[in-house]
């Protein structure tokens, strides 16, 4: 990249503004949920900066708090983050020839909203020479708002009385995140199958109900997506 295009960076920042109405409250809920699961506020903020993936953060916090073995925590979060492989494949044609330092930064900033906004822009402007700057503009604003939301949520969660019993915060965050994604028969079937499976197999040892529910949900979704 010969010269950093500030106008493209600013355009990316502006493009991110509509989704901030969803990013900020989700970050807030995530921060509260992590503290409610027993994670120290400072550690919750550090985890957010290191991971930058809300779904896996909530899942791992909830599983660790319930005494789930580390190996199963890693398996569960790996299933949740499989979508990042698809995101990487989507972005590769646009950034494959960028210097390594920029590709590493792109990889760190990959998130659902960042990829969605950037992919839409790239489809409309396939020959835009400033794709990297646009992506960084989108990613930087969303990253900042997310981190502020998590920090605020962690502070709020730490200040609430322990008697309030906020364990419901993590499941509530997952419900709030998942329901808007159910847009067709396959997604609905996958959600129902995984929900029923985790309830029926709840008493299995080592929290095996969670990876089993994930596998059941994925299998059901694939089946219904191929069924005419």
Structural overview:
The structure is a single chain. This protein is mostly helical. It has 2 domains: 155 residues, no CATH class; 47 residues, no CATH class. 75% of the residues lie in helices and 0% in strands. It contains 12 helices and no strands. Helix 4 runs antiparallel to helix 5 and helix 7 packs across helix 9. It starts with 5 loop residues before the first helix and ends with a helix. The model has no long low-confidence stretch (mean pLDDT 84).
Index terms:
single chain, 228 residues, mainly alpha, 2 domains
Summary of the model, kept short:
With 228 residues, the protein is mainly alpha-helical.
User: How many strands?
Assistant: 0
Structural class determined from secondary elements: mainly alpha
What is the count of DSSP helices, taking H or I runs of 4+ residues?
A: 12
User: Radius of gyration in whole Å, from Cα?
Assistant: 19 Å
């Amino acid at each position: 990249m010969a010269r950093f295009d500030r106008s493209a960076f600013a355009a990316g920042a502006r493009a991110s503004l509509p989704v901030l109405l969803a990013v900020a409250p989700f970050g807030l809920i995530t921060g509260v949920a992590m503290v409610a699961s027993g994670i120290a506020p400072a550690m919750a903020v550090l985890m957010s900066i290191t991971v930058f993936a809300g779904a896996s953060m909530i899942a791992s916090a909830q599983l660790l708090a319930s005494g789930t073995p580390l190996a199963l925590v890693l398996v569960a979060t790996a299933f949740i983050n499989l979508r990042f492989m698809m995101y990487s494949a989507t972005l590769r044609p646009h950034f494959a020839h960028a210097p390594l330092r920029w590709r590493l930064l792109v990889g760190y900033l990959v998130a659902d909203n960042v990829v969605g906004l950037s992919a839409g822009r790239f489809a409309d402007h396939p020959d835009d020479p400033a794709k990297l700057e646009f992506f960084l503009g989108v990613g930087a604003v969303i990253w900042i708002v997310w981190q502020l939301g998590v920090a605020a949520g962690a502070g709020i969660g730490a200040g609430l009385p322990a008697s309030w019993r906020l364990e419901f915060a993590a499941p509530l965050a997952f419900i709030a995140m998942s329901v808007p994604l159910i847009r067709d028969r396959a997604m609905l079937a996958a959600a129902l199958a995984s929900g029923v499976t985790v309830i029926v197999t709840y008493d299995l040892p080592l929290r095996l109900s969670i990876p089993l529910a994930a596998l059941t949900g994925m299998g059901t979704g694939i089946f219904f997506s191929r069924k005419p």
